[in-house]
């Protein structure tokens, strides 16, 4: 809960001013922990709003937790637009971030810009998130240059789980850890305003966090990140095909 949030007589959240990218930057500078939670529809978006969470992520994990796909890869831009619009109707105060689905941004920066603009224009997104490190730097630069805020995502990148051999912790060897640091620096340099670190040993995530000048948002990456993100269905125990660590 950020300082601008008010509480009612019973302690429940009653009103809150809009969280913007400036709020996130200010929280980071003040060392305040940043909270992010996923939502996939109108009611789950309302829950994120009412809980006083800072950022709401329409994550492509909804492919698995809400649509029952085996992975995030089959999700289309049209499906994601539909979900993002619904979340946006229920989630007013948190800063709204949406994942670019697999296949919508990798081929060229132009395709990535086109997909990003659709989410801003047609689904009320306020930022996009995309998976990848150094190889995505040029794309992140193009998207941020036209005024769309970008959240990076490195470590376990579920869209590449086939190449990674499953949902596995990344950065366990010194070489992999060094590569993760270079990925984080490249994504920051390209203009990302914050970076999700997924399934990374806590010491490595803490080191990367210290080396960056933008916030890190961890999931399975220890307590030393600038903030934490949770998949709402996991947090509420609503997804039981497997239990993330
Ligand atoms: O899709 C998602 O829910 C995510 C989180 C795991 C960060 O990307």
Characterise the protein shown here:
- By secondary structure, this protein is of the alpha/beta class.
- It has a single domain, classed as Phosphoenolpyruvate-binding domains (TIM Barrel), CATH 3.20.20.60.
- 39% of the residues lie in helices and 18% in strands.
- It is built from ten helices and ten strands.
- The protein has helices at 21-29, 42-50, 62-65, 77-90, 109-123, 137-145, 161-164, 174-190, 202-211, 232-235; strands at residues 6-7, 13-15, 34-38, 55-58, 95-99, 127-131, 150-155, 194-198, 216-219, 227-230.
- The strands form two sheets. An eight-stranded parallel β-barrel has the order 3-4-5-6-7-8-9-10, surrounded by seven helices. Strands 1-2 form a two-stranded antiparallel ribbon.
- Helix 2 links the parallel strand 3 (34-38) and strand 4 (55-58).
- Helix 4 (77-90) packs parallel to helix 5 and helix 8 runs parallel beside helix 9.
- It is globular.
- The model has no long low-confidence stretch (mean pLDDT 93).
- Bound molecules: 3-methyl-2-oxobutanoic acid.
- 3-methyl-2-oxobutanoic acid binds next to strand 8.
- 3-methyl-2-oxobutanoic acid is lined by residues 38, 57, 59-61, 99, 153, 196, 198, 219, 229, 231.
